[in-house]
Structure formats: structure tokens, C-alpha cells
Amino acid sequence: MAQQNKLIIVESPAKARTITKFLGRGYKVEASQGHIRDLPKSQIGVDVDNNFEPKYITIRGRGEILTRIRKEAKAAKAVYLATDPDREGEDISWHLANILGIDPSTPCRVKFHEITEKEIKSAIKKPEPLDLNLVDAQQARRVLDRLVGYKISPLLWRKVRQGLSAGRVQSVATAMIVEREREIEAFQSEEYWTIAGDFPGFGARYQGQNGDKADLKSQEDCDAVIRRVREARFTVGNVKRGERKKYPAPPFTTSNLQQEASRKLGFTTSKTMQIAQQLYEGVDIAGVGTQGVVSYIRTDSTRVSDEAIASVRETILGRFGGEYLPATPNTYKSKKSAQDAHEAIRPTNMEYRPDQLKASLSRDQYRLYKLIYDRFLASQMTPAIYDTLGAEMAADTGDKFVYSGQHKRFAGFTAVYEEGHDDVQEEADTTLPALENGMELRLVDAHADQHFTQPPPRYTEASLVHALEELGIGRPSTYAPTISTITTRGYITRKNKRLEPTELGVVVTNMMTKYFPDIVDIDFTAEMEKELDEIETGAMDWHKVIADFYGPFEKTLEIADQSIEKVEIKDEVSDIPCEKCGAMMVYKTGRYGRFLACPNFPECKHTQALLKAIDAPCPECGGKLYERVSKRGRHFYGCENYPTCQFVSWDMPVTDKCPDCGGRMVLKRNAKGDAYHLCVNENCKKRVPVSAPEDE
User: Fold this and answer.
1) 3-state SS class at 401
2) Looking at per-residue confidence, does 615 or 413 come out higher?
3) Which helix (H) or strand (E) holds 238?
4) How far apart are CA 665 and CA 653, in angstroms?
5) More confident residue, 417 or 338
6) Is the predicted pLDDT of residue 339 greater than 60, yes or no?
7) By C-alpha distance, which of 131, 117, 125 is closest to 339?
8) Which run of H or of E encompasses 526?
9) Where is the catalytic site (predicted)?
10) Is a pLDDT exceeding 70 seen at residue 89?
11) Residues 6+ apart with CB under 8 A from 198
12) CA 253 to CA 35: how far, in whole Å?
């Protein structure tokens, strides 16, 4: 092979295809398909007696890829390592450099943060040496996670059950879900009542009498107030008018994107990252070709380049006009722990509007791209402006009602996008009443409402990611695999978008808390995360960080191995006989949720899916509908007559018909967890509040 091409090595074949189209002749682009070398699966692979040196081997199945890359590198004029611009990418490039005999101190590393022709061609002209601090930081994380996982997991196999695992981040995440469940179980609900008053043109809430705050414990308490105020004369006072500005949220970081995609699109964290990767690596745009349409997707920074700011400001001015464009660009502070190595997640080209790319994207790609595009566009727009009004309605009986409301006067960024929130209800936009001090009013009506204090809500994927980030546990790239792992291990289940611990999750967490308290301690884990970040900046030596951890950890392991007794988790017996041998089947938890298995295993290996029928019939054939679990752990509803009948639904169908159009309805929940029926007719979308089924 003639020495003429410059070889560029990336991670994925999709990225390789995109870059090849940009560079053309004179370049050869090969994909390593991720890691080439890693620690062996069959052993711990870390020499604890030799300064924790890792023992890397070529990953099984990568031999042919490595042979091809070696051949191309030998024939190339120059070799550039262009893996992802993060710790893991730097580590992959370092392994490739070692295998190919490339000096890491030479300009062999190419970094780009978006896969566009301009960015790729610019990056190729500015190769740089490998950042060995980044490599050390990744090695430290890999070694630490291997020591924790490969030392504790076998102990769990011996003491609890085969196939279990523990991990530096996964154990903390599981413990948080278990602890939240305990808070819910221990919660004592208290009854309280409120009174709403209807005045001409507006409503107000009862505050109390003679300066004392209302303390309404029963219907009788409320009836006494309502009788007293029904014929009272009210005078308006303490009228306060004002203006409130609501500012846009910053462009997406990785964790923000995972949270919003969970709230607004119902995506799991792993699905979000999978689709975001596709948008980053390149999609085939009709009439244009393959392009990466979003910038690098693993980032904890809100920083944006000057060029991107100029482009989005030009777009805002052209689409919305000057009043929607701030005089100077909006700036956002990143968190103290942010690495700031990459920009925020944004579109690579503002001219690629979501509606223009819709035909070139899959449905899920379009929805996620629109979320990213709209969030970035809104982040550089003017604030929304609300007129606010507060007033008191004082009765001649000494009772007082208060009014508080807001009306959006100028949409600002909300014309494009508004951030979602977990378990928080935004104040409604309303027409403000014309109230003046001294006005006299009559109460039109009043009604009492019974309430009960609510326990803290179970985590959603979005709220768990938010909590982990706030506590400094893990990093953006770890959240999706962490949630996926603890679901696969059977430590948690996902139901109605909420995460619940299983009995197995509780048992393992109890054991970890008792014998490995540091591993599940939030403060300890967060401090360890800081030390790992300091390796990245060169402030700490990775060998010392691991050594400081391993000494106490090794002693803890010895004590735990001697102290922990075998835990037997008894299987719950069902009332369903085994079709093969007649024994009563037992409930088991696998990677896809609960299922039925014969207790006579391994003599009898019969298993069957655990199906739960729902009341509503199949809307297509009238057959029974069963609740099932997908391979990713999500609950869905399918017809008993599958595959003859192909009906499936992520939301539970209900028997009620839409009161407006007569269409089919499904059970949904809002951010607070309140249940309602939603009409699936796109032209209707009627909502009907309901009480949640007790067996959910």
C-alpha cells in the first residue's frame, strides 16, 4: 500500500462515515468501535502489590479491528487519534498510541466538539499531544471501580445470590431509592382543610380571623367559617401591583438534557444518550448529506462559543424581532464542579430548524433535537414579563381572604420553551381582577376542600439524576449506565415513571450500609469524586488516591467476609401451578422485572411471564389487555391475541370514553403524581382528573 493517506482513528463507524465525506481523498478514517483494550473480565486485573498497575488485554472480538488499524497505520503518512474529547476518549487514544507505537508527547491527538465539515477540517490542522492527566483520571476511575466491584460482588454472590454486583455510584443510587422508600413508609399523613372564596371575577383563599392564621382540622371547622362569612361585607385592602421577570434556563448540560427528556418526552436516561449520540455522530439530511446536528453530548458546562452566540442572536432577531433579543448575550455560571472542557449541548447550525429536519430524522431523533434546539434558542432570549397582583379581602367579621395572581404581559423566551420541573406546580397565568383599596365586595360563594399531607415522592429518573448531580455523586456520563445497571440487577423497578426498590435491593443495601458504610455514604463518595477530578488537573497522583482508599477498604472487606452470614431471600409462592411438573410457581426478579419460575429448578426449568390483566378491553380486537415489561424495564400494555393483534400502549388504557369526543382514554399522571384520564385523539386531548387505582 502506497504511503499517501493520513489515517484518522475515531470510535464509531457512524462517525467514521460522516468524517470521510468531509475530508475526501488523502485521508483514511477507521473506527476502533470503542475500547480496544480493557481490564480482563475473568480476573480483577489490578496488581494491588505493584502500585495498583492495571493489566490490560485486547478485548475479545477486537482482534480483526486491531489488525486492520495496524495495517492502515503502517501504510499511513501520519496517524491522528480523534476519539471523543473527554476522559474516556483520551484513554482510548492512549491505548491506541501504545499499540501503534505512537509517542503520546507528539502532536497526534485531534479534538473536535461537533461533527461538521468546518470543525473537522479546523481540528485536523491543530493536532496536539495526548493529555496524560486525563488518561490518569480515567485509569483511576477504572481501577477504583474494578476494586470495589470485583472485591464486593463475589462476597454478595456467596452471601446472597449469584449475579449481584456493587459499585461506587450504583450502590449509592440504590441506597438513595431505598431510603426514600423508607421515608414514604414511615410517613404519617395528616388531615388539613382549606377554604376557597369566590368573589366577582376572581377566587381567593381563606387566611384566618383577627390576624390569626387559619388552622382548619375538619369539615365542621370550615362550615363554621363559611356560615360566618357568607353574609359578611368585605373591603379590599393592601393592594400591591408589581412586575416579575422570569429568565430562561441555560443551554443543556448532559444531566439537564437527561432530566428534561425524562420529564417532557418520557425517555429513559439511556435512551436519551443513545439518541443524542446519533444526533452528534451524524444524520443524513436530505439535500445536504451527513452532518452532526448537535455539539458534543457529554458536558457539565453551560459555556457557549462566541460564534454560536452570534448565530443564535441572528436567528432570534430574524424570527422574533428586536424586543426578544437582549442588548447583550445572556451568560450562565456553570457549577463549581464543572470541568468546562466542552461547550453546552447546542445545535451545530441554527439554520437546521427542527421542522426543516423532521423528514430526515426518526420520530425520537426529531423530538430530542427539537428539545435541544428550542432550549438553546430560548437561552439567549429576553425574559418573560408578568404583571403581578396581591390583595386582601377583609370582612367585618374579622375574617380575611387573600388573592395572588400573575398575568403574562410579554412572552419573551416562553414563546419558544419553558423548563419542566419535578413535583412542582407553576403558578397559573390568569386575567388580573381590577381591585383597588377601599372597594367593597360580597362573597359569591365559598367551599371547603379536604387535604392530606403527602409523603416525599418516589424518585423519577429525572429527579434521581438531579439529586445525584446536586450531591456530587458520579458524573454526567455515569448516570445513564448507573440507572440501567441497578434496574438490570433487579435492585429497583420502574413503575408509573417512578423508581421503587425491590426486596433484593433492600437486602443488598442493608448489607452494604452495615458492612461497607463508606461505599454507600454520600459525603464519602462525593469527596472521592472530587479527588478523582483533581487527578484530571494534575493536582493529585492517581496511585496515591487509590492507595489511600484501598488500605481501609481491604480491612473492611476482611471483617465483612468473616461477619456476614448467608442471607436467604425466600421466594414468594404464587397460586399458579407449573405446566411441566405441577409445583406451585414462585415469583422471581430478573433483568426485565418479575416473572414466574418453577421452584424445582434445575430439575424443572419452566418459566413464564407474569401477566396482569387490566379492566379495559383491547380497542382493536376486544381481547384482554395485559401489563407487560419491556427489555428496558418499562411497563407497557399489550393484547392477549399478539401477534395476530399488534396493539400496544405505553399508557394504561381505561374503560371510560372521552366525554367530549367519545374517543379512547388512557391513564396518565402529572409532575405531582396526580392521576388523570387523557383522550388519545390528537384533536381533542381532553383531561379528566381521577383517583389513582389502588392496586397501582
Assistant:
1) strand
2) 413
3) strand 233-246
4) 6
5) 417
6) no
7) 131
8) helix 522-536
9) 296
10) yes
11) 443, 444, 445, 446, 447
12) 25
Q: What distance lies between CA 119 and its chain's CA centroid?
A: 29
Output phi, psi for 584, to 5 deg.
-75, 125
Q: Is the dihedral of CA 156, 161, 165, 170 positive or negative?
A: negative
Q: How confident is the model at residue 696 (pLDDT cuts 50, 70, 90)?
A: very low
Closest CA to 313 of 295, 328, 333, 334: 328
Residue 602 is predicted with a pLDDT of 87
Give catalytic status of residue 592 as yes or no: no
> DSSP strand E in 248-296: where?
283-285, 289-291
Kindly tell me if the per-residue pLDDT of 496 is higher than 50.
yes
Q: What would the grid cell of residue 607 be? A: 418459566
Contact 31, 11 (CB under 8 A): yes
Q: How far is CA 589 from the centre of its chain?
A: 24
Tell me how far apart the alpha carbons of residues 294 and 462 are, in angstroms, rounded to a whole number. 21
In sequence order, the β-bridge partners of residue 28 are: 7
Instruction: Report d(CA 294, CA 674) in Å as an integer.
Output: 35
Q: What are phi and psi of 422, to 5 degrees?
A: -85, 130
Task: For cell 417532557, name the residue.
Answer: 264
- 655 vs 30: CA distance, rounded Å: 55
Listed residue (93, 118, 483) closest to 295, CA to CA: 118
Q: Count helices and strands (H / E) in the chain.
A: 18, 31
For residues 63-80, one letter each, b for 16 or more C-beta atoms within 10 angstroms of the residue's C-beta and e for the rest, the string is eebbeebeebbeebebbb
The pLDDT assigned to 362 comes to 93
User: Quick check: 415 pLDDT over 80?
Assistant: yes
Give the model confidence (pLDDT) of 670-682 as tens digits: 655 667 899 988 8
Handedness of CA 248, 254, 259, 263 (dihedral sign): positive
- Residue 107 backbone dihedrals phi, psi, to 5 degrees: -75, 80
Given 3-state DSSP classes, what are the helix, strand and coil percentages for the chain, each rounded to the nearest 5? Answer: 35, 25, 40
**Confidence at residue 1, expressed as pLDDT on a 0 to 100 scale:** 42
Find how far residue 563's CA is from the centre of its chain: 37
Diameter of the chain measured on Cα atoms: 99
Round to whole Å and give the CA distance between 248 and 347: 17
Average pLDDT across the chain, whole number = 90
Q: Is 606 exposed, middle or buried (0-12, 13-18, 19+ CB in 10 A)?
A: middle
Cell of 166: 456493587
Which one from 296, 324, 366, 459 is the annotated catalytic residue? 296
* CA 374/CA 353 separation, integer angstroms: 9
3-state class of 147 per DSSP? helix
Contact between residue 155 and residue 512 where contact means Cβ atoms under 8 Å apart: no
Cell digits for 173? 443510587
What secondary structure does DSSP assign to 297-322, as a single string? S--------HHHHHHHHHHHHHHH-G
